[in-house]
Amino acid sequence: MRLVGLEDAMNRPYEEYSLGMRARLAIARALIHDPPVIFLDEPTIGLDPISAREVRDLVRRLRREGKAILFTSHNLWEVEEVCDRVGIISNGRMIIEGSPRDIKDMLGLKYVIEVEVQLNGLAETIREETTNPVETLRRVISDFETRGFRISRIRINEPSLEEAFIRVVGNEGK
């Protein structure tokens, strides 16, 4: 109960637990026999942002402690946040697997670099898609500096695991 942050609530009836407390209690129950593998099916579904963050933090801590965790979720942002390896399944088949970064690279998903530049008081945002953001950014910065533009803001948008899912599964998952 201490591990999942419920030590102060252990004598309260289950019915008084919030959804977040119930989710953490479910994890505590999964850990009671110290298993080498923990199965978590949508552990943050229906939780408020604070409770969901606490569950994600707990999953990360368990992973650092050497636990193998099978984490299923439709929230791909969350999967990318807590998982080292990801498998995308469609119609009962594993379509692709690897680290989130490897999956995005295998699919050739692109970063979007946005550079806001100013020249003579006029501002313009330039967008460029690339699979190699470091080299592209070096080239773009050099080019703008050579042309006398002042760079006021740079933003790099990394491709998401959701984009990878859509690319791989498409309409197959509907």
Descriptors:
single chain; 174 residues; alpha+beta; Rossmann fold; Ubiquitin-like (UB roll); 2 domains; three-stranded antiparallel sheet; two-stranded parallel sheet; 7 strands; elongated
Structure description:
The chain has 174 residues and is α+β, with helices and mostly antiparallel strands. It has 2 domains: 7-84, 3-Layer(aba) Sandwich (Rossmann fold); 111-158, Ubiquitin-like (UB roll). It has helices at 19-31, 49-64, 76-82, 100-106, 133-146, 161-169; strands at 37-41, 68-72, 86-90, 93-98, 111-119, 122-130, 150-157. The strands form 3 sheets. Strands 6-5-7 form a 3-stranded antiparallel β-sheet, covered by helices on one side. The chain has a two-stranded parallel sheet with strand order 1-2. It has a two-stranded antiparallel sheet with strand order 3-4. Helix 1 (19-31) runs parallel beside helix 2 (49-64). It is elongated. The chain starts with 18 loop residues before the first helix and ends in a 5-residue tail after the last helix.
Give the CA-CA distance, first to last residue: 40 Å
Please state the oligomeric state of the protein chains shown. single chain
CATH class of the largest domain: Alpha Beta
CATH topology tier name of the largest domain:
Rossmann fold
The overall average pLDDT, rounded, is 89
Low-confidence stretches: none
Number of helices: 6
Classify the secondary structure makeup into a structural class. alpha+beta
What is the gyration radius calculated from CA atoms? Answer: 22 Å
What is the percentage of strand-forming residues? 25-35%
The fourth-level CATH homologous superfamily of the largest domain is P-loop containing nucleotide triphosphate hydrolases
Instruction: Specify the overall morphology.
Output: elongated
Major beta sheet, strand line-up: 6-5-7
Number of domain modules: 2
Largest sheet: number of strands, sense, barrel closure: 3 strands, antiparallel
Named at the architecture level, the CATH assignment of the largest domain is 3-Layer(aba) Sandwich
Give the total of beta strands: 7
Q: What is the helix content? A: 25-40%
User: What is the element string, with H for helices and E for strands?
Assistant: HEHEHEEHEEHEH
